[in-house]
Amino acid sequence: MSDKLKLFCGNSNPMLAKEICENLGIEPGQVHIQRYANENIEVQILENVRGADVFVLQTASPPVNEGIMELLIMIDAVRHASAARITAVLPYYPYARSDKKDKPRISIAARLMADLLEAAGVDRVLTMNLHSPQTQGFFRIPADQLDASPILCEYFRKKNLKNFAVLAVDAGRAKWAANYAKRLKLPLAILDKRRRSDVESAVVENVIGDVKGKHVAIFDDEILTAGSIMAAVDTIRKFGAGDVYAACVHPVLEGPAMEKIRASSLKELVITNTLPLPPQKQDPRIRVLSVAGLFAEAIKRIHKGESVSEIFE
Amino acid sequence: MSDKLKLFCGNSNPMLAKEICENLGIEPGQVHIQRYANENIEVQILENVRGADVFVLQTASPPVNEGIMELLIMIDAVRHASAARITAVLPYYPYARSDKKDKPRISIAARLMADLLEAAGVDRVLTMNLHSPQTQGFFRIPADQLDASPILCEYFRKKNLKNFAVLAVDAGRAKWAANYAKRLKLPLAILDKRRRSDVESAVVENVIGDVKGKHVAIFDDEILTAGSIMAAVDTIRKFGAGDVYAACVHPVLEGPAMEKIRASSLKELVITNTLPLPPQKQDPRIRVLSVAGLFAEAIKRIHKGESVSEIFE
Amino acid sequence: MSDKLKLFCGNSNPMLAKEICENLGIEPGQVHIQRYANENIEVQILENVRGADVFVLQTASPPVNEGIMELLIMIDAVRHASAARITAVLPYYPYARSDKKDKPRISIAARLMADLLEAAGVDRVLTMNLHSPQTQGFFRIPADQLDASPILCEYFRKKNLKNFAVLAVDAGRAKWAANYAKRLKLPLAILDKRRRSDVESAVVENVIGDVKGKHVAIFDDEILTAGSIMAAVDTIRKFGAGDVYAACVHPVLEGPAMEKIRASSLKELVITNTLPLPPQKQDPRIRVLSVAGLFAEAIKRIHKGESVSEIFE
Amino acid sequence: MSDKLKLFCGNSNPMLAKEICENLGIEPGQVHIQRYANENIEVQILENVRGADVFVLQTASPPVNEGIMELLIMIDAVRHASAARITAVLPYYPYARSDKKDKPRISIAARLMADLLEAAGVDRVLTMNLHSPQTQGFFRIPADQLDASPILCEYFRKKNLKNFAVLAVDAGRAKWAANYAKRLKLPLAILDKRRRSDVESAVVENVIGDVKGKHVAIFDDEILTAGSIMAAVDTIRKFGAGDVYAACVHPVLEGPAMEKIRASSLKELVITNTLPLPPQKQDPRIRVLSVAGLFAEAIKRIHKGESVSEIFE
Amino acid sequence: MSDKLKLFCGNSNPMLAKEICENLGIEPGQVHIQRYANENIEVQILENVRGADVFVLQTASPPVNEGIMELLIMIDAVRHASAARITAVLPYYPYARSDKKDKPRISIAARLMADLLEAAGVDRVLTMNLHSPQTQGFFRIPADQLDASPILCEYFRKKNLKNFAVLAVDAGRAKWAANYAKRLKLPLAILDKRRRSDVESAVVENVIGDVKGKHVAIFDDEILTAGSIMAAVDTIRKFGAGDVYAACVHPVLEGPAMEKIRASSLKELVITNTLPLPPQKQDPRIRVLSVAGLFAEAIKRIHKGESVSEIFE
Amino acid sequence: MSDKLKLFCGNSNPMLAKEICENLGIEPGQVHIQRYANENIEVQILENVRGADVFVLQTASPPVNEGIMELLIMIDAVRHASAARITAVLPYYPYARSDKKDKPRISIAARLMADLLEAAGVDRVLTMNLHSPQTQGFFRIPADQLDASPILCEYFRKKNLKNFAVLAVDAGRAKWAANYAKRLKLPLAILDKRRRSDVESAVVENVIGDVKGKHVAIFDDEILTAGSIMAAVDTIRKFGAGDVYAACVHPVLEGPAMEKIRASSLKELVITNTLPLPPQKQDPRIRVLSVAGLFAEAIKRIHKGESVSEIFE
Fold first, then answer.
1. In the predicted structure, residue E65 carries a pLDDT above the cut 50
2. Touching check for F196 and chain E: CB below 8 Å?
3. How many CB atoms lie within 10 A of CB A198?
4. CA–centroid distance for C173 within its chain
5. Is B204 a residue whose pLDDT tops 70?
6. Which of A178, E2, E139, F15 is the most exposed place for a label (fewest CB within 10 A)?
7. Which listed residue (F4, F18, F193, F281) is catalytic?
């Protein structure tokens, strides 16, 4: 790999950055990130990057907003240090869920992030499994989106998938679940939750499709507080489901997520390392699959001008 | 309404423009659109627009690309004629379905349209029911999106909705259908079509949810060739459904659409006039609901600086 | 030629693109252009273009506006596929005649085209004989303009040019005609047409300069409906001219053009292939000169960083 | 006239600015323009312009480049002082003749001026008789172009125009001359100058059209060194012309211009005051027509949102 | 005050916002700022802002980076809600000290903030006492800078200023201190600290000017950790100074600041409320002067199009 | 050095350009700069620059504004001639002192220059000792700033620096002077000039620090009219100073500068060649140090992608 390829990372996921660099056979770029008493971040790039093909990695892990500012300042520093090209590597894209105006007078913050990245001087973006595929259209600069589905599917295919169904936890996730059901050649079920009428507060839960006596796999792009998934586990249990597995690309796992997961009857939770899993979140039932190899391959191809879509053929 | 509010329309939907103007109590702006022997379009605005709040209406009806060029040229003419503000009114947004990169090396053309509109000089956009809500994020300029669902729901509520279900023709449309099911307080069913296995070519059709003996309403944002909907009608008939209604906001109805609809057992097709319905597409079973009042109300509010979201409260 | 040089072409002039590629010793780039039932164009680039020096060829032949949209979408697809540089190759520049505001409140559409091309992501433009030389100033990006005059002059020099004159069909074309007259060392004549007075409708035709007993060559940058040229042929015949030749770079030849040409006493019409000549327009008196070699040479030089102006020294 | 309309002027043509202000019934805006020992210009706007509709007048009179910098700095000062809208009023547009790339690797400086004006913060431009009409397309912002032809024609119509012809001094000016010939209903003649052959250095002068025994009026957009016009006077004299008048919109009159004019047999030189006529250039045969009324009318209409093109109907 | 003037504030300094609104006689704009479990901020503007002149106030108080993101998202929400104009009101400008490249390959983050604000859609900025006056040049949009010096000076003038001197804590602050010395007509002294030689670590402190037996006032634009000021107090005590007062516009007071201040012999610390003073930082020796009136006056003038510089005349 | 590195220079400092080229081992690029009778500048680049790494040198020497226009036009010509990258080399940055808004409604012209350079098409800037370090933040493009201090210090270190002090001529220059004092390990003194009171016109001069019996060196970034420095020489003489040396990077030396210098008792004036020293300014007491080697080294490193900051380590 040319010495003109450099990867710098912020404080959000140094383990993933290190693993990607190992895959690429390079050392992570030397950078000094300082936080002054006034909370101002100073990023100093410690090596010459003139004419280099620079990748800057930051994922949207807590502290999220601190991490975004760190990323923007790092990009600005790299740009003014005369890098030839800057690619922001964002394994978990910040504000990915703020992708539409579902209330009056809010910001489509995922689009704003794209604008801020461009303002700071990013030339291209490399990310993974955006919450909606349309988000790729928020960028005027080229944006490559990697897909962790093959990694998750490969893992599930190794299990005995007899008598399994794929469950969408609500209608909005049906398309995503259907995609996995097709790849794994499993039937699809959808959870349909709604209030019985305006006067009653009771929620009627209904499973569209058949889960009785079946093991169930729930796939999602991200798990946040684990609320919907854990409620789904309870519901399908009542409808007679067997073992329940959950899998997601981006394990945000904030708020009561870990408490709920630990209290649940979930058989296994399969995640990737787009977000770091701090010690307090580690659990024997959680299985982490690495996306480092995939990112390294994509970075190598971007650097060499080779096709990225070919990876998924 | 101030004489500083002006609405010009291209050749795509003059009837709708006229109806909107009647609602607003104004005359459509005078414009001369000429097509020379070399197919070059010349747009001449025939009245002074300096300092005016100009709305330019064009919908994505055939000839679609001709219409886009006409729109861009009209906007450029209005801008250089010193309008104070230009709002593109796009009842059916062009290239709305090209909203994601589902194949390698294609254009997200819905985003490109936004870029072209901004390049031509549009200050804001007013549209209706984008194919995906994320498309609103393709605009850096303010973009208001109107929703025709209340108009369609109001029409259906007037029918006897006893023993009805709402059907999503595939998992990808489940969210949209669920929204209607909730508004109309009807149960939801989803059609799940897939190949039985790799070797067999046979498609297995399955209805997730219950339609037996029920009348069924299929809602979609647009109907293009009517292929999926007509296939769905056949399938649910086999599963014992009663009368089948279809409804959409944007009646594209191209290719074999009218032929299929006429040959089908569809009870009624409910559409709006975001796209014109030329004589050869008119049919006794097709019912057109007008969105002119809604657009007029939104234009009036935009012009006066009043809230548009309040319309939907 | 490096494998990093790629030329893709739209549907407007595949023969010219093929001929240019043959001159360059490369294969035209693989691209799939699809037109859906809703008339939406989808362009899929079928080969990797990351880091490539991509040329996208489209000429303004009918359907003109369809061709422009196809071009813009193709450019957007190439850009998001991470090409290193994109040059739009526009043998006949679209809307070239809309280069000034000769009526109130019209668009200078040739300038708008430049804006749209830049918005879509073009880095540079290569075109030929713009209707006015000022149009080159409509681009903020570098724009190379080729000149087909040497090709036309070389062809005429091979004829016996004794007793010839060059005719400008009106005062507005005098400069263009004078340029050819100087290159071919021939005298210049200008047709001056005007109404005798306000009350009379009669048009007085006058030839400024001498054509009596001379063969006449009429040069123009483009022939659209052939109206002015054919009228000129009749007039100068009355003034005693001998054989009349006409030549242009861009043979638009729309509307009654072919009918008029076929009915005329024109000796020969010399054109280039910047626009395709469909079978119904072919005629024994029409002579097509190819600009493919010139475009290939320019593309090669642009790709290699060699001077383009040197071609014309 | 509202107190929100303000006109500031640089050092290029304070008399014209004053006359325009008198027509508008306003006082010129207070501004202090200082030139320090290091030749740096400091512009201080001495009155509040927040929310004002500001017009900044500067014409391209010597020192031309000094004047351009003064203009750009004044615009920047006005913009940061929060004017609502800034219109650059440029009676004689700077670098108007640098409107095409007629040599390799030169700048189309007239386009660069447009870019610099936009970079400094101009919202719109008001100018008069650009050297080529295409130059209007160099602006992405709205640009109004006034025409002094009616003023010149009105003046000539008051003369006895019997036995007159209009002369174009070369083929490139034929279109401009033809326009005047038509307005004044006079015949057109064109001067055609060229070398007889490559070996001989002698220039053959030829008049296309008839000037013998006629009085001749030469119209041009600008007179620079008066070289072409004075040579034309001599030539047509030889061809038997009577009195010769010259007229132009922009009297640049630099280099040997005044010397040549004074030595010539020119009957009268008619100019406008888009450029100041310093005492050393004043001459009994020079007649200055004022464009102040026309500019004042245009500024009033721009300010009030009334049509500017109507002035010329 | 027109109902079209609206002021929204983030979480950084609601007390100041409230006080400014009271001065303006308006209610703070209704806004709902939510922080989800994934730390994503959602800002919903709860009232119609179409056509309004919106001011968004945020100061750089901890958590600083969280506050910047909140500000950018709020601006984006206001912009897409179609405000007529957005002014960011930034009493203490974020990253104000990162205004130069004093190390290789760092970001001039104060400039980046300006870029991000413009990218988010701000039309103008209102701030107070930037760390360097040049920072105003980081904005392409109009930026008004208020000065709290008159407020601080007015407070000090009320004291008995006999036998007082103004001290600059190092040469870099001499200009700022000299400004206060002139306004208060007091002599100036400068602290000059440096190492005696390269080998010795001892620092030689020297007071340039005379403080013996004098009371001393130290002025600064901001106090961060209070390190330099407290060291200065000790030093000048050794040099025989009497009472020591310190004053600054922006009381950042982070890290050991409060501890040092409480342990010091400082007579009084005078600050303003550009930053909130949380309970744990309050102290009997700290005197807070309000800038709310000044901000209210400036906002009123900006809204009404009146001069802001006049406030300081 | 690759033939793809080219340096073109305007008329401002051809000697420096020549010396830089000699250091780089290249010939200055061939360019023809013409000034027409109408004062319009035409720049023609006489050699192919496609794909070249072009440096354009211009310094802010008189005629300053003429030089800026020449520079902008040259950059535009190079850009449209398809250079790969354009670096403006500005040894003395134009309008460097206009870096803040110290009066109401003036332009921060140093920022405007940055905007104009970017508008013309510059990709990066290389300059030396900006009047304020913040000015570097005026550029969105990468801007390298060289420092001539080592060259000046090296020269002074060769003198016998015993019994020397460094003097700041006012508080505003204290920081700059302190920097030199530290580098040369000399004590610092500051001149403090002020009016005694409002009623008296007498100015009280005071030296903060000790100069009695010492030789004094005054350092500044630029000397304009030499007013402050010459006044300082007189003052410190009165306070008992010995020999007085002055040194600056940028010798503007306009207005009465040379007269004052020649009349003064200044021992030596040390300058660099960022600005040319025309014959009438040459003087035996003026010593010129060359920055050509430093610029050549920086250009070489920028071209090769090597670190520029390393030069100063």
1. yes
2. no
3. 7
4. 16
5. no
6. E2
7. F193
Segment 116-145 of chain E within 8 Å of chain A by CB: 116, 118-120
CB contact at 8 A, A49 and A83: yes
Cβ contact D67:D276 at 8 Å: no
CB F78 within 8 A of CB F8: yes
Residue D71 CA, chain-centre distance (Å), reads 17
For residue D32, the distance in angstroms to the closest alpha carbon of chain C comes to: 34
E181 touches chain D (CB under 8 A): no
The catalytic residue positions of E are 193
What is the CB-side half-sphere exposure of residue F195 using CA atoms within 13 A?
8
Annotation marks residue D193 as catalytic: yes
The answer for D 64-93 residues in CB contact with E (under 8 A) is: 79-82, 84
- Tell me, what amino acid is at C37? A
CB of F35 within 8 Å of any CB in chain D?
no
Select from C172, C178, C208 the Cβ nearest to the Cβ of D175.
C172
pTM to 2 decimal places:
0.95
List the one residue out of E141, E46, E30, E124 whose CA is nearest residue E85. E124
Nearest CA-CA partner of F31 in F18, F15, F42, F21: F42
Give E91-144 pLDDT, tens digit per residue.
999 999 999 999 999 999 999 999 999 999 999 999 999 999 999 999 999 999
Query: Is C102 within 8 Å of D133 when comparing Cβ atoms?
Result: yes
Average pLDDT over residues D123-128: 98
pLDDT band with cut points at 50, 70 and 90 for residue B200 = very low
Q: How many Å is the maximal CA-CA distance in chain B?
A: 68
User: What element of type H or E holds A118?
Assistant: helix A109-120
Phi and psi angles of residue E90, each rounded to the nearest 5 degrees, phi first: -125, 85
The three-state (H, E, C) secondary structure of B72-89, written as one string: HHHHHHHHHCCCCEEEEE
* pLDDT tens figures, F265-277: 999 999 999 999 9
| CB spacing of C50 vs A305 below 8 angstroms | yes
Interval C153-189: pLDDT, tens: 999 999 878 899 999 998 788 888 989 998 999 988 8
CB within 8 Å: E48 and B302: no
* 8 Å CB contact of F48 and C124: no
| In contact, B6 and B54? CB cutoff 8 Å | yes
The verdict on ipTM greater than 0.85 is yes
> F307: which chain A residues are within 8 Å (Cβ-Cβ)?
48, 50
F305–A contact, CB cutoff 8 A:
yes
Which residue's entry shows tokens 């002599």?
E187
Question: B233-242, B243-252, C110-119, E199-208: which range is least confident on average?
Answer: E199-208
Distance (Å, rounded) from C-alpha D49 to C-alpha E307? 8
Nearest CA in chain F to C306: F50
**What is the number of alpha carbons within 13 Å of residue D74 lying toward its C-beta?**
30
State the residue for tokens 């400004």: E179
Residue B50 and residue D143: Cβ atoms within 8 Å? no
Q: Which two tokens stand for residue D181?
A: 């010939």
Q: What is the pLDDT of residues B223-242, one digit of tens each?
A: 999 998 998 998 899 999 99
Secondary structure (DSSP) of chain E: --TTEEEEE-SS-HHHHHHHHHHHT-PPPPEEEEE-TT--EEEEE-S--TT-EEEEE----SSHHHHHHHHHHHHHHHHHTT-SEEEEEESS-TTTT--S--STT---HHHHHHHHHHHHT--EEEEE--SSGGGGGG-SS-EEEE--HHHHHHHHHTS--TTEEEEESSGGGHHHHHHHHHHHT--EEEEEEEES-SS--PEEEEEES--TT-EEEEEEEEESSSHHHHHHHHHHHHTT---EEEEEEEE---TTHHHHHHHS--SEEEEESSS---GGG--TTEEEEP-HHHHHHHHHHHHHT--SGGGG-
Contact at CB, E135 and F134, closer than 8 angstroms: yes
